[in-house]
């Protein structure tokens, strides 16, 4: 793989990441509710799911997964319902001054799981990676080293973008307290519901 090909790939991925998706909205929500450092567990969950999706694509399972439309639909809507449930808890739960640390009690494992489920609930991602990577892989060079470079680059860029979203939201969250923080927490719930809506609007069938 030449440096020119890699730079073209970076530009293409950056363009695709310019529009916030469900994972970015979830990162915003958890940064507002739990702070930036704890929300990094959410980013780690998202990137873990990305890794497995890319691995499946690399192993040639994209066509097999794309054939099971019913299974893809179940996975997708399970993720949508999960995000709606989380968002509703944040919107209508009690986050008042009587328990000011309630928002911070979510374990890192739970925050990781939220990120993983949100990303894994987009089963079309496997097909996406299977369609994207061949555009930048040369048949004259070994496949797996090129695949590893493309995968690592994508994960690094995705992690950077999630950190930007989370860092900005965490900065805001540290500067509000009391009733304002409660409203901010509800805003996070709205963002999470927005993530569910975006996920639900994504078509399941591969293009």
Protein described:
The protein has 207 residues and is an all-alpha fold. The protein has one domain (23-201). Helices cover 76% and strands 0% of the residues. The protein has helices at residues 3-16, 22-34, 36-58, 62-67, 69-92, 108-120, 124-132, 143-173, 178-201. Helix 3 (36-58) runs antiparallel to helix 8. The longest helix has 31 residues, at 143-173. The radius of gyration is 18 Å and the shape is globular.
Features:
mainly alpha; 207 residues; 76% helix
Shape: globular
Number of strands: 0
> How large is the count of helical segments?
9
What percentage of the residues does DSSP assign to strands (E)? under 5%
Query: How many structural domains can be distinguished in the coordinates?
Result: 1
Residues in helices, as a percent range: over 70%
In whole angstroms, the N-to-C terminal distance is: 27 Å
Average pLDDT, all residues: 75
Structural class of the helix and strand makeup? mainly alpha
Main sheet specs: none
Topology as a string of helices (H) and strands (E): HHHHHHHHH
User: Which spans have pLDDT < 50 for at least 5 consecutive residues?
Assistant: 95-104
Radius of gyration: 18 Å
In brief, what are we looking at here?
This protein has 207 residues and is mostly helical. It has nine helices and no strands.
What's the SSE blueprint?
Blueprint: H1 3-16, H2 22-34, H3 36-58, H4 62-67, H5 69-92, H6 108-120, H7 124-132, H8 143-173, H9 178-201
């Amino acid at each position: 793989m030449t440096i020119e090909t890699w730079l073209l790939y970076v530009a293409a991925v950056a363009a695709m990441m310019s529009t916030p998706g469900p994972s970015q909205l979830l990162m915003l929500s958890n940064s507002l509710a739990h702070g930036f450092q704890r929300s990094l567990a959410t980013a780690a969950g998202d990137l873990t799911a990305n890794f497995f999706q890319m691995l499946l694509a690399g192993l040639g399972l994209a066509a097999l997964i794309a054939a099971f439309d019913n299974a893809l639909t179940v996975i997708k809507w399970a993720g949508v319902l999960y995000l709606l449930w989380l968002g509703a808890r944040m919107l209508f739960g009690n986050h008042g001054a009587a328990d000011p640390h309630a928002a911070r009690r979510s374990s890192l494992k739970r925050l990781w799981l939220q990120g993983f489920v949100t990303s894994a609930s987009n089963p079309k991602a496997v097909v996406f990676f299977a369609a994207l990577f061949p555009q930048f892989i040369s048949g004259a060079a070994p496949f797996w080293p090129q695949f590893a470079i493309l995968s690592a680059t994508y994960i690094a860029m995705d992690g950077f973008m999630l950190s930007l979203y989370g860092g900005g939201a965490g900065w805001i969250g540290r500067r509000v307290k009391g009733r304002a923080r409660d409203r901010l927490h509800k805003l996070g719930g709205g963002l999470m519901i927005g993530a569910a809506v975006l996920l639900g609007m994504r078509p399941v069938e591969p293009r």
